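Quick one, T. Sequence first:
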Amino acid sequence: MAMARRLKLIVAYDGSQFAGWQSQSHGNTIQDHLERGFGRITGTPARVHGAGRTDAGVHALAQCAHVDLSGKPLPPARWVEALNALLPPAIRVLRCGYVSNNFHARLSAKRKIYRYRIWSGPVLPPFEYRRAWHIARPLDLKVMKAAAKHFVGTHDFAGFAANRGKAENSTIRTIYSVRIRQKAACITVDFYGDGFLYKMVRLIVGALVKCALGKMRTEDVVARLESGQLGPARFAAPAEGLFLIRVRY
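Structure tokens:
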């Protein structure tokens, strides 16, 4: 039997119409659509592994995934063409290539970059609908940047993680930088880190925005971070503003 070959894929998607990355019984997830595509092309079931399990409504510019394929290997360009002919238009394989069997989309990932987009203006343009969190009130960017600095470094982020149902082995993560920029009404918050817990970026953004609106003190945010404890009900920024930008290996 031919040895299985590992194919690495770079996938982009508008997450607004899907129930996240991870396979579910109803079948409307990114992983399900990709696995069905491979199944239809090869005639055998395939398991696709993603670098990160983006939630329902979250987008990706360059999610990375891998799949093991037996049978006659198609050239990478043919896979891109064949998969995109079967996938919904809101999911696209941008490129792919064969990699060594030691490569693992999730376990080999060293860094991830997430971007959160906020539209800070009275009117949300229709083309920003489902691509940014609309906040009609002005945000104090100076306060937001000052609060964001506290998240840089290695911390126990338990106070900024949601429970996915099973406990994480460790809630310690390192954030290398948080970069906040504003261009006209659009504010982007870029997180560069070694990995992120469930809803971590959205919970951090939720806290930063509360500080920027004067509804929360930076000291309270820092205390929650330093406690390393799951706190009372917390506020997560909505999914539609979040984009997985890149995974580095």
